[in-house]
Amino acid sequence: MTVKKALGRASTGFNGLDDVIDGLRIGDNVIWQVDAIDVYTQFVTAFVERALSENRRIIYIRFAKHEPLLKPDPRITIYKLDARSGFESFTTQVHKIATLAGEGVYYVFDCLSYLLSAWATDLMIGNFFLVTCPYLFQLNTIAYFSILRDSHSFKTVARIRETTQVLIDVYNPDNTLYIHPLKVWHRYSSTMFLPHMRVEDRFAPCTSSIDATRFFTYLSGKETELAKRNLDFWDRLFLEADELVKNNAAAARKTKMIDRLCQIMIGREDRILDLAKKAFTLEDLLEIKSRLIGTGYIGGKSAGMLISRKLLCQDASRNWNDLLEPHDSFYIGSDVFYTYLVENGWWKLRMEQRTKEGFFEAGRILSDEMLHGEFPDEIKEQLWRIIEYFGQSPIIIRSSSFLEDAFGNAFAGKYESLFCVNQGSPEERFQRFVEYVRRVYASTMNEDALAYRLQRGLDQQDEQMSLLVQRVSGSYRKHFFFPDLAGVGFSFNTFVWKNNLDPKAGMVRLVLGLGTRAVNRLENDYPRVVALDAPLLRPQAGIAEVRRFSQHEVDLLNTESNQLEAMSLEELLAQDIGIDMEVLGSWDVETAEKQRERGISSEPHWVLTFDRFLSEGPFTHDMNAILKVLEEKYHYPVDIEFTLNFTGDSAYRINLVQCRPLQTKGQQQDVTLPTHVAKKNILFKSEGNFMGGSISQPIKRIIYVNPKRYNELNLYEKHDIARLIGKLNRQILDRNELPTLLVGPGRWGTTTPSLGVPVRFSEINQVTAMVELEYQSGSLLPELSFGTHFFQDLVETDIFYVAIFSIQGKALFNSEWFAAHPNKLWDLIPEDGRYEDCVQVCDLEGEEVYLKSDILSQQVICYQEGKK
Question: What backbone torsions phi and psi does residue 484 show, to the nearest 5 degrees?
């Protein structure tokens, strides 16, 4: 048996703290990171008093000018050392003391930060700890050290963290004591690395995102006093800005500095810059800098989130702080992305990718390479800051590129955003976090993103990837974590399915759980679409359609599996985790009645309708107010992403996680629809279920995927069809010269071939209009995807969309018209001619085929004119 095993565990002197970190171990070196010495003294006193009660030997190493940590006591040996003698002399004396004392001694050291006044270099403090800590460990001691927060470089703290056994952050806002374990060697629990608040004799973990964010908001201004060594222009500039604030400089000087900092940190797009300069104070920009990893731009997504929050809080119509959940995000600057490329030797490949010949091919190679690169040590050290800060709280790593979320370029869904459940040891969490950072970086080179940039003339512009790291909004329910509600909101409702709806009132897509289901097209699952001027009005009629077009699964984070998961609503409700379906759902009376008729007794069947929540509470008013204020401030329609968490008694907080300018198409022109068209000349018509405004568009080519034939294909062949559509898409060199209508079953762009044709958006981005057909096989069903990333792609690319549902009597699709037209597939793509019974290409040269819609009457028709 080793000496450590024989000596076993020890106590911190706080039973509640022992519960959090599973006590101390013989050999532990414990670092307390504090704001003030008196806080450290509390932990030292408790530790020593308990040790003395157990007849332990105590040695106090006294060297600093702060007040003594311990009072004179004959049971305590005090050594007073002179740090001014230098690093080597001081370190040697400590080692001699330890050697003389032998094994099993408990040590208390003065605050190591005070060594700076003697040694004038942070590096030496790290060196001292690096040589002293292992030696004390070898001697089976327990030693207490402390450092003052923000007094040391990232590199020094990283070296201390790597060497020590226990590292604990301590905060004392408003005389409320918090501890936050950052490292506890060889110990782990499900809440160990969360912040804990002292409540009498125990330390309670902060598991609610609202409580945790409120706590960390206290820290917002505390990290500006970082180590001021090796200063470059960037650091000097921000130090100058800090001095302007501290000295209450003239407004003109502050305004000039705001302009300068926005230019180097927010972006270059004039309208976004103007918004930033109006929204941010110099203090705000210094706060952003304090949470910036590396240097450079914070990116479009970060800028939009921050600007929108500030614009709301500046609005005098209400106290927005009472409604909005605070945030405590981090930003990984754009210079880190460039450094990552350069340090891994990929700059030559990056330049090749910028050429016309290498745009896609070199992009694919670079994307693969970026999944396996290494970060410089100084960047890793700063990334550790994020992991330590959030502890085991779930986070999301979001793309925030230079061009993203700007006016005219949303890049909606083009780059990765990854949930990190963030469970495990600090090392495991760090490795997973870095992996996700690499994946987001690699997504800058995915084919859809490159095609989007090429189509919008952005292929030769700088596209630097910054990252936005956000705490996931929500709370723990058993081992699940998710917000109560989430969604996307639009200040302009492009999807007005009734002629009495006001597009300017806005629209929301609302889901239970994580917001992924509000922005993505998912298998047989639908969010609640809410017109804010008529929240209870649905696009569907009857309980059968309401049930069919509702949310059936919930996205959540599972802290046991450490993964993002989807769970059926029924299964989630069976967990009995406090979801109030009386507010969020409606009882499916029809299903219950059918089961009773069959003699089946069961629990109530719920459908997520949100009817009571929408009708009885202030949500629609609040959401409309948010959207209208932001639209007014932006001078442009906006698109937001949000979460919502109930705080009790029907109250809630809204977390605004994203805001960007919304590209819309409204009533572009007055269109007169034909009143007398022979049925045989109608290709299709519908009432509602379209987007793209009022149009009158001649059609010169139709690409039609036959639903019956497609449904009969195997999985491999269905993917073949998607690639074939991509080939036809690439043959459309000019959309104005060859306006093309794409018609097919189910959902275009699905990842599930049984639900539709699994094309990438880059394989359909040249068409003028597209149709999704319902096919009676049951699974080939269109999705009214208004508000999703797919929707944003269609709007930005100016693609008209219509869904044809056979169950709706006012819809018509004339398959016989297509059967009467020759198929040009063999002529255009001879290598895929074998699929001519599934894919039909109708060239309409010399024929007059028109697609027309009227947004006011909600009518759309595609017809052939002049044919007898």
Answer: -60, -50
